[in-house]
Specification:
The chain has three helices and six strands, in the order αββααββββ. The protein has helices at about 10-60, 75-80, 95; strands at about 70, 75, 125-130, 130-135, 135-140, 170-175. The chain has a two-stranded antiparallel ribbon. Strands 3-4 form a two-stranded antiparallel ribbon. Strands 5-6 form a two-stranded antiparallel ribbon.
């Protein structure tokens, strides 16, 4: 007994490694699911923050949503930024894109460097439009006073006031363009 060496045999070590590999194979799909759920929760949180900011905007502006195009070069995200505590966004959008305006991006959407005038995104890439960038688009049916886009839609389909829209009407959602 005194001459027997202490330690693991090669067989014991291989069995332990096989057990660990089996456990990892079982756990990886579960971890992937948890990661996907976390991103989905972050996306829902972003949409909630944008919706709350829109509610605050509507309260300040006689129950109306902001026009899609407010002034030349200013769009709905410029008007919504102060309600997300990004008051300087209008003057310098790029400075705020990593800060509070990160709520304009779904966590599963990737930002892409491309020319400013290529404003369409895709299901996995963010859009860029006149200094703004994001992955969510505004429901254009909620913009009855928009000087550019209201002529393209039948007037009877617009919601004149924000509170006229039913709870089932989407306000903001995933979009490949700044408006949906």
């Amino acid at each position: 007994m005194m001459g027997k060496p202490k330690g693991f045999t090669l067989i014991e070590l291989l069995v332990v490694i096989a057990i660990i590999a089996l456990l990892m194979a079982i756990m990886m799909p579960a971890l992937s699911y948890v990661r996907k759920q976390a991103r989905s929760s972050a996306c829902q949180s972003n949409l909630r923050q944008l919706s709350l900011a829109m509610n605050l905007y509507a309260l300040d502006h006689e129950d109306r949503t902001m026009p899609f195009s407010h002034e030349p070069g200013e769009y709905w995200f410029h008007q919504l930024a102060p309600y997300l505590s990004a008051k300087g966004y209008k003057s310098d959008p790029k400075a705020h894109i990593e800060g509070v305006m990160k709520v304009a991006f779904c966590p599963m959407t990737k930002r892409q460097d491309r020319p400013e005038d290529s404003f369409y995104g895709s299901a996995s890439l963010a859009w860029r439009f006149l200094g703004g960038e994001g992955s969510y688009g505004l429901n254009l049916w909620l913009l009855p006073d928009d000087p550019i886009y209201s002529v393209d839609f039948p007037p009877g389909n617009y919601y004149k006031k924000y509170s006229d829209a039913k709870g089932s009407v989407p306000l903001i959602g995933d979009s490949m363009w700044v408006g949906s």
